[in-house]
Amino acid sequence: MTVTSDRLSEIARSLNRLHWQPTADEVAFGSAFFERMKEAEEEQRSAFPRGTNWWDRLHTESFATLARVVAMVQDELLPVWRERLTGSPMVELAELYVSAAEPLLPHAERLVAAWGNAAPPSPTADEIAREAGRLNLSAGLAERRIRFENASHWEEEGNPHGLWDDLRPAWANVSAVRSTMMAAVTGDTDY
């Protein structure tokens, strides 16, 4: 199944107009989807350096998380729920999510493999002290910031210029499906 904005729009419109009111089973399936997503995010968090702001996250971490979520949906969730919810828009949303992610998965595989072989430089004690003094940070936060910046630099060097911008439409498709699915789970259709 390929992601079509028309089909996603039809599902979202049906949800917004209350023509589709997810059943308890559909909400349970959607909730399981988001629980798996949270698990995947937690798994990846320790494998990659983070910056000092909550939004500081490597592209590679985002790709690794996406690949893990897609695998969980395909291997764990859809086999269990597809028959139980035959014809359900919630199942269709999960399938649309997987389909939307497909153009990104080869990049995820390449980035994760490259990260496994990467060795961004560790900051020296002098670099940490200099950064801590320059930004008025604790040594721990300064080290965290430098590690993230080194990893970000590695990421930019190892990928074609403009790659992230080129992939932005595919990420937007993934986000649109995820947002619609979240609205169906929470009932918050005022988006």
What would you note in describing this structure?
This protein is mostly helical. It has helices at residues 5-16, 24-45, 59-84, 89-101, 105-117, 125-135, 139-157, 163-186. It contains 8 helices and no strands. The mean pLDDT is 92. Helix 3 (59-84) runs antiparallel to helix 4. The longest helix is centred in the middle third of the chain and has 26 residues, at 59-84.
Descriptors for this entry?
191 residues, mainly alpha, 8 helices
Strand content: under 5%
Number of strands: 0
Order of helices and strands: HHHHHHHH
Proportion of residues in helical segments: over 70%
Give Rg in angstroms: 20 Å
**What is the makeup of the main sheet?**
none
Quick synopsis:
This protein has helices at residues 5-16, 24-45, 59-84, 89-101, 105-117, 125-135, 139-157, 163-186. The chain has 191 residues and is mainly alpha-helical.
Write the layout of secondary structure elements.
Blueprint: H1 5-16, H2 24-45, H3 59-84, H4 89-101, H5 105-117, H6 125-135, H7 139-157, H8 163-186
Helix pairs in contact: 1-8, 2-3, 2-4, 2-8, 3-4, 3-5, 4-8, 6-7
